[in-house]
């Protein structure tokens, strides 16, 4: 019984730490971090209004490569150099409101990142974690959206 209580306390501590860490590295833009829309619809509306292509990121708090990219890649100088040339959306695949957009793009693994241009046409896609230099180069290569 003591072992079970100790295990549950440890498990609760880990869950609290993970949730607290995901809040502290949340998707709200800060510093050089892009400013993320929290819905596909709002990102597409902003993309249409500005004429900028959209970067749509499907992610989850429990995904280690997703969290690495949120911590190390999105706020990097390589991304900061081009972040204002895109509309950004960060979508949690575990939320019901993300289901339709994830299905539209056939998301099967995360992080799944799509560059979407005019008429919601997919310009480019990638799945999995990547370094800041590689991600920045991919963004620059797809600026025409």
Plain-language structure description:
The chain has 145 residues and is α/β, with parallel strands linked by helices. The chain has a single domain (2-141), classed as 3-Layer(aba) Sandwich (Glutaredoxin). 44% of the residues lie in helices and 17% in strands. The protein contains six helices and five strands. The chain has helices at residues 2-24, 40-50, 64-73, 77-80, 99-104, 132-141; strands at 36-37, 54-59, 87-92, 112-116, 122-127. Strands 1-3-2-4-5 form a five-stranded mixed sheet, covered by helices on one side. Strand 4 and strand 5 (122-127) form a beta hairpin. The termini are far apart. Mean pLDDT is 83; it is low at 3-30.
Give a short summary of the structure.
The protein has 145 residues and is α/β, with parallel strands linked by helices. It has helices spanning 2-24, 40-50, 64-73, 77-80, 99-104, 132-141, and strands at 36-37, 54-59, 87-92, 112-116, 122-127.
Q: What are the salient characteristics of this protein?
A:
single chain; 145 residues; alpha/beta; Glutaredoxin; five-stranded mixed sheet; 6 helices; 44% helix
Average pLDDT figure:
83
CATH topology: Glutaredoxin
- Overall geometry: globular
What is the overall number of helices?
6
What is the CATH domain class?
Alpha Beta
Give the count of structural domains: 1
- Under CATH, the homologous superfamily reads Glutaredoxin
Based on the structure given, which CATH architecture is correct? 3-Layer(aba) Sandwich
Strand element count: 5
In whole angstroms, the N-to-C terminal distance is 59 Å
Written as H for each helix and E for each strand, in order along the chain, the element string is HEHEHHEHEEH
The largest sheet has its strands arranged as 1-3-2-4-5
The percentage helix is 40-55%
Q: From the helix content, strand content and strand pairing, which structural class follows?
A: alpha/beta
Radius of gyration: 17 Å
Portion in beta strands: 15-25%
Largest sheet: 5 strands, mixed
């Amino acid at each position: 019984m003591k072992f079970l209580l100790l295990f549950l306390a440890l498990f609760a501590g880990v869950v609290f730490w993970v949730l607290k860490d995901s809040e502290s590295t949340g998707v709200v833009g800060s510093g050089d971090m892009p400013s993320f829309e929290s819905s596909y619809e709002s990102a597409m509306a902003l993309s249409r209004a500005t004429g900028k292509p959209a970067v749509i990121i499907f992610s989850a708090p429990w995904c280690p490569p997703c969290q690495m990219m949120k911590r190390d890649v999105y706020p990097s100088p390589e991304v900061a150099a081009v972040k204002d040339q895109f509309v950004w959306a960060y979508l949690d695949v575990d939320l019901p409101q993300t289901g339709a957009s994830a299905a539209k793009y056939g998301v099967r693994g995360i992080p799944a990142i799509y560059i979407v241009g005019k008429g919601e046409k997919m310009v480019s896609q990638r799945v999995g974690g990547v370094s800041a230099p590689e991600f920045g180069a991919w963004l620059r290569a797809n600026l025409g959206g």
